[in-house]
Give the backbone structure.
Amino acid sequence: HFKIILENKKQTLKTSTKLSKYRSNRRKP
């Protein structure tokens, strides 16, 4: 059960980092 939560956290982290990278990239002209 804990493993699933861990995997979810990993996925969320990956997605958030991707999002932040994408956002910072878009900010630059």
Summary: Residues 2-27 form the longest helix (26 residues). The chain has one helix and no strands.
